[in-house]
Design brief:
Layout lengths: L5 E4 L2 E4 L19 H4 L5 H11 L16
Antiparallel strand pairs: 1-2
């Protein structure tokens, strides 16, 4: 069987791609940490961009949401 990459989310290993195993089958594996995925949080960049947009001073974005819709 090929190597499967997974992410630990609150104690549950979630595969990063589809895995062809029967539902609820038990597997055994030896975790090997991939350092590039463990450094920092995966959404830090997204939150930084969202924070900049939130503090942009543009206050009526939601009010003007449908302004250009036909």
């Amino acid at each position: 069987m090929r190597k499967v990459r997974a992410v630990d989310e609150k104690g549950v290993f979630r595969p990063l791609e589809a895995v062809s195993l029967p539902e609820n089958c038990e597997v055994e594996f030896e975790p090997q940490v991939v350092t590039s995925h463990c450094e920092g949080k995966p959404f830090d960049g997204v939150y930084t961009v969202l924070a900049e947009r939130y503090e942009s001073g543009e206050t009526d974005v939601a009010a003007r949401h449908d302004e250009h819709q036909p």
